[in-house]
Amino acid sequence: MPTFVYMTRCDGCGHCVDICPSDIMHIDTTYRRAYNIEPDMCWECYSCVKACPQFAIDVRGYADFAPLGHSVRVRREEEKGTIAWRIKFRDGTEKNFLSPITTKPWGRDIPKLAEVPGPNRELRDSELLYSEPKFIRFDDGGLHTLEKAGLAFKAGVYY
Amino acid sequence: MAYKTIIEDNIDVLVVGGGLGGTGAAFEARYWGQNKKIVIAEKANIDRSGAVAQGLYAINCYMGTRWGENNPEDHVRYARIDLMGMVREDLLFDMARHVDSTVHQFEEWGLPLMRNPKTGQYQREGRWQIMIHGESYKPIVAEAAKKSADKIFNRICVTHLLVDDAKANRIAGAVGFNVRTGDYHVFKSKTVICAAGGASNIFKPRSVGEGAGRVWYAPWSSGSAYGLLIEAGAKMTQMENRIVLARFKDGYGPVGAYFLHLKTYTQNGFGEEYESKWFPELQKLVGKEYLDPEVSHRTHRPIPTCLRNHAMINEVMAGRGPIHMVTMQAFQDPHLEEVGWENFLGMTIGQAVLWAATDVDPKNENPELTTSEPYVMGSHATGAGGWASGPEDVSPPEYFWGYNRMMTVEGLFGAGDAVGGTPHAFSSGSFTEGRLAAKAACKYIDDGKAHGIRVSDEQIERRRKEIYKPLEHYKVYRNEVVAGDVNPNYITPRQGLSRLQKLMDEYCGGVTVGYMTNEKLLNICLKKLKVMEEDLEKVAAKDLHELLRAWELKHRHRTSECVTHHTLFRKETRWPGYYYRGDYMKLDDENWHVLTVSRRDPNTGEYTMEKAPCYHLVGDLEDKALAELKEREKAGVAADH
Fold first, then answer.
1. pLDDT (tens digit, 9 = 90+) per residue, B379-391?
2. What is the ipTM of this complex?
3. How deeply is A126 buried, as exposed, middle or buried, from its count of CB atoms within 10 A (0-12, 13-18, 19+)?
4. Are residues A95 and B593, on separate chains, in Cβ contact within 8 Å?
């Protein structure tokens, strides 16, 4: 269905409804549990699968081209900063993968720009963005310009 | 109807769409406008919205200027040749000179960028691409946006931009509805940064059942960037420049890391190299300036993406399919095998699901490739979008009208897919464009350009009625039939989408016609789109979810109309492999080395088309080296290898 929800695991918390980019995870009014209301608008992005605290959501590949009997399961752990995958093939083969998702405690090193020293007039009138010219140059020069690079614009076919 | 009207007033910078462009805009706006009111309106949840919702395994636009790898002009030249010359080089240069600062910030924020153990520099996948563990790319940039924005409105489907009733052609905000509560939201703002998405699903996809969800670009990319801009009367550019992707079959898993890092390659069903044999004929159509395999072998110059598509399409049509990606050698190396799989898990999980389901292990067999249905967007190897001003210190006069990334409507800015002529921005470039637009928007306000904006109650009320019409329409007519969706008075959003996809596919160069169209077909296409517009007045929505789909459909329809006008206007085949004008099969530099620009009059619905000059950067080193090479060839001297 692309994503589907196991009846016995879902407790209707709605995390998947909250996160789905396609607005297709909804709560069934009779069962008070989530389900995919529009499988052909599901990208198999796994946002809901990763967000489900009960591991109640899984994916069954698109019926157009994916035979039954496979599974790709995931566990994303924000505190640990990792994501673990287990792929099971139709023929039983298994593959496991583990990747980092962040190198820093969540959000700690993202600046609050309302609190940093504000730009002066000169900076406002320049072409620089916040934190520049850091990292945009190999040498000590400022921002790249056409002039410095010896470039000019010419209209039409030049080659 | 009992839905409330919620007015958010006195906004300085309204960001429409919280994807990579929008999060970049919101983040940066706070620096240049520390006391300004910054608001994001997003139709999903910014933690997982936009094209990067499921993550990325690579950042495809990074210069490495800091390490002397590339300069901005190198990237301009690359994007130029890949798009067969048709790009906005001022915007590209500007994006490229800033993009590294964006990428380095991502690393500081915690995005895991892989390092080359030998050099300590970022791990290159290709000349422009670096490899990342980007599962949480979107939540990380969303965090940055949250730290900067005053308010974030999730689940607001923005349907229209508001225009100033006091001064013509000036922006005044946006309106939409809450997908959950149904409430009507009015955002009154001095500036708007349109960072909504490009369009999937306007051409009939190869998979038409459940698999229709596995489109290459996200199914929620509903062309709203274009729907919103066109309706507001902004000029558009290069809308004919749709893209077709060569990808792993059915799952549309990415091939970039496979080609560039794993060094896999393609062959036909008989195990033969096929690409080069199509090039001599193709060269006669496009000219040696655009396709010169010899030069491409010896320099950094790539063979344009569309031309490689052309070879694949023709090889399959000649009966020598399927095309395979030769993975069996590379995948014997356990490290490369891991990279291959994690590449999918990081950004196209559906491809891993498919290979698991079909027992395809690329170590034991070479997987199939195919060419996709066309997509309309502006940040991959294609450059559809709004006609935006460039930066003051770079842009030629025709490309500059006051503020960087400002559209032809005052106070309306763009980023990401919304900006035309800037292909190869990808995630990092889109975020950077958002930053550039945000700085310019703040300057626009500080310069006093947003004084005296007035939004009439009439405009707000008119939009409100328009927005909820599909719900009303359903209520009025649903009981005329016993049950089901067949009704003589309306169509559902899904039925409308199928109609749009079928007509765009058959008349505007979709996959079932081998990407072929011509003047006659395009005129029929326009006629059918016009009739469809009448029927869209009768689209019915049974609930708020369908109302969301109804408005996505309207944005897709408007996008399609603009694409068709542009395709009709450009009387040449500029990008064989993306689409073909059967009546003008050759590339025609004499008449069409120009950018196409359109404007739809919001009052009459009439389109005006014009040609804008295409400027190129000249005078840099590689440029000279290439010229020298040609000189030597002309002189008959054998070039050294």
1. 999 999 999 999 9
2. 0.97
3. middle
4. no
Percent of chain A as helix, strand, coil, to the nearest 5: 15, 25, 65
Domains in chain B, CATH or no CATH each = 246-371 (3.90.700.10), 465-591 (1.20.58.100)
Q: Provide the sign of the torsion angle of the four alpha carbons B31, B37, B42, B48, taken in this order.
A: positive
Q: What mean pLDDT value characterizes chain B?
A: 95
Is residue A53 domain-resident? Answer: yes
Average model confidence (pLDDT) for chain A? 94
User: Of the candidates B514, B150, B135, B506, which has an alpha carbon nearest to the alpha carbon of residue B349?
Assistant: B135
pTM (2 d.p.): 0.97
| Chain A residues 73-92 with a CB less than 8 Å from chain B | 74, 76, 78, 83, 85, 87-91
Closest CA relative to residue A151, chosen from B422, B607, B77, B245: B77
Pick from B30, B44, B215: which is nearest to A113 by CB? B30
Query: B410 in contact with A at a CB cutoff of 8 Å?
Result: no
Q: What's the number of domains chain A is made of? A: 1
Residue B199: CB partners within 8 Å, gap ≥ 6?
B217, B221, B222, B223, B226, B375, B376, B377, B555, B556, B559, B560
Contact A19 B45 (CB under 8 A): yes
Interface of B with A in 588-617 (CB under 8 A): 589, 593, 613-617
pLDDT tier for residue B314 given thresholds of 50, 70 and 90:
very high
CB contact (8 A) between residue A89 and residue B359: yes
